[in-house]
Specification:
- By secondary structure, this protein is mainly α.
- It has one domain: Orthogonal Bundle (Arc Repressor Mutant, subunit A), CATH 1.10.10.
- Helix content is 57%, strand content 11%.
- Strand 1 and strand 2 form a beta hairpin.
- Helix 3 crosses helix 4.
- The longest helix has 17 residues.
- It is globular and about 45 Å long.
- The relative contact order is 0.13.
- Pfam families: HTH_5.
Length: 109
């Protein structure tokens, strides 16, 4: 049975994945927690841009900040998020491994 809560949860997840930077952050965090400076280097963005995206992901309820003294460690809010990302990747590759070969293509998937 579909509820408003279900729709909102999926919309938040979709919003998070709609941006390449946020997707890279989530994919990075599925392998374990990270610190902002490390995540910025891994994702290839400035700390300010990373901070903005982390705030969005926190607002979506997908990541949490765990205080550690004067800094914070970021991790997925629930381990099922990492498994959901793995399942989505596997599904897309199973359906069409060549999906969206050109980012500038108007026809995608």
């Amino acid at each position: 049975m579909e509820t408003v809560v279900h729709r909102d949860a999926l919309a938040r997840f979709g919003h998070a994945l709609s941006d390449g930077t946020r997707t890279r952050i989530l994919l990075s965090l599925r392998s374990g927690p990270g610190y902002p400076s490390e995540l910025a280097d891994q994702v290839g963005v400035s700390r300010q841009i990373l901070s903005n995206h982390l705030a969005c992901l926190r607002g979506c309820g997908l990541v949490v900040a765990v205080p550690e003294g004067r800094r914070s460690r970021y991790e997925l809010a629930d381990p099922r998020i990492g498994r959901a990302l793995d399942d989505l990747i596997g599904l897309v590759l199973a359906v069409d491994p060549n999906c969206c070969p050109a980012a500038d293509s108007e026809e995608c998937c």
